[in-house]
């Protein structure tokens, strides 16, 4: 039998794959709890809107989980996002530059549903990759 | 947490304190990291959360400081800033065998951008 910690890791991994990689934004209805708390994008809707903007700016984006650790109901993930700047990103016209940025996300899983999320990303590195002139 | 995980977490907390005393706690591999010590004064450190699973330990550290120097092209604002750092460790036989550190700038930049 799987432990709760293992199940929580699987839930978070499956959510990242469906939401961030397959861009199946409606999967929030399956993965997130009714009382989901979003600390980085305000709300479930805010999360979907942000992911939509990222998809527009980096249509080939790919998230890879590099490290995952779980304790009780919490799961912490380190990942990278790679892609090409092909659309407007926060007012910056597409440059065609590749990006490769590290981010962390912390989740709380309750009864198999993700109930809370907070994220951190290295924006200085991301901006330096977008703004650099590689032509 | 198992006994080993508990001990590993304690080892890491002691090591973090050592890094703080040596003035090395803000060191990371990010290209802008050397500026952190110059840009933020009166730095205080707190371990906000610690994860231990198997031979891994990850600490989430909160650095609080005052933005009194140039940072990544941003002129000093005199604002107080909270910086999140993740420090990851792998332990072998109770000793630290590997570590990596990373500092978040996504939540830092909005705190130090000049008010428009």
Structural account:
- The complex is a heterodimer of chains A (135) and B (116).
- With 135 residues, chain A is an alpha+beta fold.
- Chain A is built from 4 helices and 5 strands; from the N terminus they run H-H-E-H-E-E-E-E-H.
- Chain A has a single domain, classed as Roll (Nuclear Transport Factor 2, Chain: A), CATH 3.10.450.50.
- Chain A has a 5-stranded mixed beta sheet.
- In chain A, strand 2 and strand 3 form a beta hairpin.
- The radius of gyration of chain A is 15 Å and the shape is elongated.
- Chain B has a single domain, classed as Roll (Nuclear Transport Factor 2, Chain: A).
- Chain B contains 3 helices and 4 strands; from the N terminus they run H-H-E-E-E-E-H.
- In chain B, strands 1-2-3-4 form a 4-stranded antiparallel beta sheet.
- In chain B, a hairpin with a 2-residue loop joins strand 3 and strand 4.
- The longest helix of chain B has 19 residues.
- The radius of gyration of chain B is 15 Å and the shape is elongated.
- Chains A and B meet through strand 2, strand 3, strand 4, strand 5 and helix 4 of A and strand 1, strand 2 and strand 3 of B.
- Chain A: InterPro entries: Cyclase_SnoaL-like, NTF2-like_dom_sf.
Summary of the model, kept short:
The complex is a heterodimer of chains A (135) and B (116). Chain A is 33% helix and 37% strand. Chain A has 135 residues and is α+β, with helices and mostly antiparallel strands.
Mean pLDDT of chain A: 96
> Structurally, how many domains make up the residues of chain B?
1
Low-confidence stretches of chain B: none
Secondary-structure element order of chain A, N to C: HHEHEEEEH
The main sheet of chain A orders its strands as: 1-5-4-3-2
Largest sheet data of chain B: 4 strands, antiparallel
Cα end-to-end separation of chain A: 54 Å
Just give the CATH class of chain A.
Alpha Beta
Helix content of chain A: 25-40%
Question: What is the oligomeric state here?
Answer: heterodimer
What is the CATH first-level class name of chain B? Alpha Beta
Write down the CATH topology of chain B.
Nuclear Transport Factor 2, Chain: A
Pfam families (chain B): SnoaL (PF07366)
Protein name (chain B): Ester cyclase
Organism (chain B): Cohnella nanjingensis
InterPro entries (chain B): Cyclase_SnoaL-like, NTF2-like_dom_sf
């Amino acid at each position: 039998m799987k432990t709760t910690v293992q199940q929580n890791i699987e839930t978070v991994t499956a959510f990242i794959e469906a939401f961030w990689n397959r861009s199946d934004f409606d999967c929030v209805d399956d993965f997130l709890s009714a009382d989901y708390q979003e600390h980085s994008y305000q709300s479930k809707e805010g999360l979907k809107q942000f992911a939509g903007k990222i998809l527009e700016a980096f249509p080939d984006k790919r998230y890879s989980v590099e490290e995952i650790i779980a304790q009780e109901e919490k799961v912490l993930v380190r990942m990278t996002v790679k892609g090409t700047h092909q659309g407007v990103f926060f007012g910056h016209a597409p440059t065609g530059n590749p990006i490769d940025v590290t981010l962390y996300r912390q989740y709380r899983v309750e009864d198999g549903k993700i109930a809370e999320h907070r994220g951190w990303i290295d924006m200085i590195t991301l901006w330096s990759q977008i703004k650099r002139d590689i032509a | 947490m198992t006994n080993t995980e508990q001990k590993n977490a304690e080892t890491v907390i002691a090591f973090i304190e050592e890094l703080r005393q040596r003035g090395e706690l803000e060191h990371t591999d990010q290209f802008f990291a050397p500026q952190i010590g110059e840009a933020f004064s009166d730095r205080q450190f707190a371990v906000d959360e610690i994860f231990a699973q198997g031979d891994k330990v990850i600490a989430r550290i909160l650095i609080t400081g005052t933005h009194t120097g140039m940072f990544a092209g941003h002129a000093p604002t005199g604002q107080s800033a909270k910086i999140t750092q993740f420090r990851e460790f792998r332990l072998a036989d109770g000793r630290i065998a590997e570590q990596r550190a990373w500092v978040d700038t996504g939540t830092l930049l909005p705190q130090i951008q000049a008010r428009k």
